[in-house]
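Title: Comparing notes on inverse folding

I've been comparing how different people in this forum approach sequence design from structure. To keep things fair, I'm posting one structure and asking everyone to reply with a full sequence. Here's the target:
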């Protein structure tokens, strides 16, 4: 068994982005990203990413 010392802790974030240069952001849950998208007028793309 290895000690796993070299591995990096990864966490999942939800990234909100827009094609029309509006500012998106990173969120801890998909729901939070969806709420932020609605508050910013909608039309954003939400994707899951590892950080």
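Reply #1:
Here's my take.
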């Amino acid at each position: 068994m290895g000690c796993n010392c070299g591995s990096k802790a990864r966490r999942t974030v939800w990234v909100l982005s827009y094609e029309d240069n509006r500012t998106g952001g990173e969120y801890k849950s998909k729901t939070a990203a969806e709420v932020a998208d609605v508050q910013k007028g909608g039309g954003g793309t939400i994707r899951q990413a590892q950080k």
